[in-house]
């Protein structure tokens, strides 16, 4: 603001000076032309009158003799220039007692007696006074304006940033154990209010993520504690039991529990890797048709027959090991709940162009209220069934996470007398998420 005011003030002073000097010079030239006209007509008096704003007049012939002059230069020799300034000759007027600035205008004319040079001096006292007064006024007004703008800016900025400071202080006070706190809402419709909303939304996501993590750790601890306790009991009994047959059965049971623990640890590790993967997607082309046939064929004999219906070829970008694990988990779940058979159907959606993989079993349908619960980690709809039949409760959550990492989805469809798990996957790898789109919720 100070730089702008300084530049504007300098421009005003320059324009004012130029305008005033032009006015003075115009008046002096007009009087010089009047004297020149009188000299040309032969009516030039010996003593010349002065107009308003004119300090002196002097007429000199070609030999340097003074022909006529104003009263204040009467009897004085011709003025001799002492130099040039601003394109005009300068004269020493100290003998006249004129210490202020002067503008001397020179006009040459031809008369019957020969050429004459007419010099008219006009005072710049008025221009100097006006410039001085304007400089003082501009300095005072600029200082006052600068102080006013500074005070208003300080107050406005402080008022505008007060909510930001409140948000910062609240965020700084939030620890890892009190994520239920929220930043204050300024209750305005501006960028700061949107910042507060964004911060509160982020805190809600952090609180939900922390709650899911704590619940996951608690569930994982519970799931690990039960087979470990059984395994220890079996081994302790096996050591002390005298019957070799019973001991062999106990060791075999301990081996089964060890395999269950190994499977659970593998699932937990895969979940951690999926959480770390985020939105990173593999660009490897996977022949989903061949993957379906290979996965079903390598499973060997099943409790219920599996029928596969696929088109000639469906290719998707992704990780073949993870996609194979997705199909394996869906088949395990279908085999667990089917009555007579399982159907795997792979096709391409003609509208969206996405790959659609349906795994259907003819078991009891899932209630609408439970269709999201089954995708929660360690969730089991039938608490009374055995753990051997019910699994670890991680198969479907892992399958949904794998689908989400590949940019797809896993849902349960309405089907009369059956349950269908539908997986949709993009057939082309997206370059990036659209601006402002949040990553998929892979709870």
For the structure shown, list the relevant keywords.
single chain, 443 residues, alpha+beta, Beta-Lactamase, Helix Hairpins, 4 domains, five-stranded mixed beta sheet, 18% strand, disordered C terminus
- The whole-number mean of residue pLDDT values reads 82
Termini separation: 54 Å
Q: List low-pLDDT spans.
A: 383-388, 430-443
Task: Decide which structural class fits the backbone.
Answer: alpha+beta
Largest sheet: 5 strands, mixed
Shape: rod-shaped
Estimate nothing, just give the exact number of structural domains: 4
Q: Which CATH architecture of the largest domain would you pick? A: 2-Layer Sandwich
In short:
By secondary structure, the chain is of the alpha+beta class.
């Amino acid at each position: 603001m100070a730089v702008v005011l300084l530049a504007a003030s300098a421009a005003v002073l320059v324009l004012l000076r130029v305008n005033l000097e032009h006015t003075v010079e115009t008046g002096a030239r007009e009087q010089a032309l009047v004297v020149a006209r009188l000299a040309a007509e032969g009516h030039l008096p010996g003593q010349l009158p002065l107009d308003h704003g004119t300090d002196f007049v002097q007429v000199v012939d070609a030999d340097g003799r003074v022909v006529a002059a104003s009263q204040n230069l009467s009897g004085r020799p011709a003025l001799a220039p002492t130099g040039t300034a601003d394109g005009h000759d300068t004269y020493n007027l100290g003998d006249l007692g004129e210490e202020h600035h002067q503008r001397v205008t020179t006009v040459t004319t031809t008369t019957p007696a020969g050429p004459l040079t007419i010099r008219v001096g006009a005072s710049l006292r008025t221009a100097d006074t006006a410039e001085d007064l304007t400089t003082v006024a501009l300095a005072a007004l600029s200082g006052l304006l600068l102080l006013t703008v500074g005070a208003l800016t300080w107050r406005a900025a402080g008022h505008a940033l007060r909510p930001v400071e409140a948000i910062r202080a609240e965020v700084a006070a939030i620890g890892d154990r009190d994520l239920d706190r929220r930043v204050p809402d300024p209750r305005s419709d501006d960028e700061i209010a949107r910042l507060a909303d964004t911060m509160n939304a982020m805190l809600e996501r952090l609180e939900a993520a922390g709650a899911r993590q704590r619940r996951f750790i608690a569930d994982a601890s519970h799931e690990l504690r039960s087979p470990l306790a059984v395994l220890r009991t079996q081994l302790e009994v096996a050591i002390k039991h005298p019957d070799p047959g019973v001991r062999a059965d106990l060791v075999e049971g301990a081996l089964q529990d060890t395999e269950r623990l190994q499977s659970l640890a593998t699932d937990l590790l895969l979940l951690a890797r999926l959480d770390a993967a985020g939105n990173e997607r593999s660009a490897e082309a996977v022949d989903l048709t061949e993957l379906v046939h290979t996965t079903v064929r390598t499973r060997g004999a099943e409790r219920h027959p599996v029928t596969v219906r696929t088109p000639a070829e469906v290719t998707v970008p992704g990780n073949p090991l993870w996609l194979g694990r997705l199909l394996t988990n869906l088949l395990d779940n279908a085999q667990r709940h089917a009555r007579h058979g399982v159907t795997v159907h792979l096709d391409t959606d003609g509208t969206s162009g996405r790959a659609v993989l349906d795994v259907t079993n003819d078991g009891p349908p899932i209630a609408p209220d439970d269709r999201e619960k089954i995708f929660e980690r360690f969730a089991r709809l039938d608490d009374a069934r055995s753990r051997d039949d019910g699994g670890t409760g991680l198969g479907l959550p892992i399958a949904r996470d794998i689908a989400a990492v590949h940019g797809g989805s896993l849902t349960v469809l309405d089907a009369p007398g059956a349950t269908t798990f539908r997986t949709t996957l993009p057939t082309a790898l997206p370059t990036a998420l659209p601006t402002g789109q949040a990553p998929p919720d892979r709870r």
